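Section handout 9: paired folding examples.
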Amino acid sequence: MKTLKELNLKWWYRLLKVVYTVSFLIFISIVFWVSWDKTTPKKIVDNDKTLLVCDSGKTYTSKQLKFDFANSSLGTFLKNQEFNQLCGYKNIDNQNKFSDWESFNAQYEKHYKIDFKYKKVGNRTITVIYFGISLLLFVIGFEIFRRLFYYVVLGSLRPKK
């Protein structure tokens, strides 16, 4: 075998071309999905501008609280108690027996609200650049693989047709 025409007569070569094409499309789809997912603009909580506002009017920033509003669970009982204490409300002692449902529920009351502010992160231009660079690298990589295959099978990097 010295030419591509002779190679195209082999069933295994035609099958290999189909596998090559399908794998190329799968890799490109993965690259597109990853670049899209990682760089697409998203709305996230802005810790620098989000405030804890007490019923009494006092406000606290995330830096003052040493609390990350963007990555923390706000529904925890301990944070509720901590925020209530900051706002000047005493928590009910858990050692006491609750005489009625109202005193039990009082420990879960919030005497504050969180004023969330959001910011956008990510950029469509970066998405296109990442995808373009990744696509170029994959095309070059697949072409190198194809040329090495020709060199091994046909003895030339650029075989005759």
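Moving on to protein 2 of 2.
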Amino acid sequence: MAQTQTHAEIDGKKVKVGDSVGFKCDYEQIGQIKEIKIERDWIGNPKTVLVLTSGSMPFGGGYIGGQRETEMELDRCWTLDY
């Protein structure tokens, strides 16, 4: 079972549950962090995974289109500076 944590760091900036981040799946999209999990890759190394929700509209694209929740590895996300 994956461990959870309350915050993570993307490019030196702290993000927490409730924050929005950008990610690319077919095209650039935005998701709100629902959960931050620490999982293990296929050789046992830890990796941070963000569970993201789409808000009022589902995500788009061919892979996750129509879904309202997805998981994305931390290193595939970026902070939003606005």
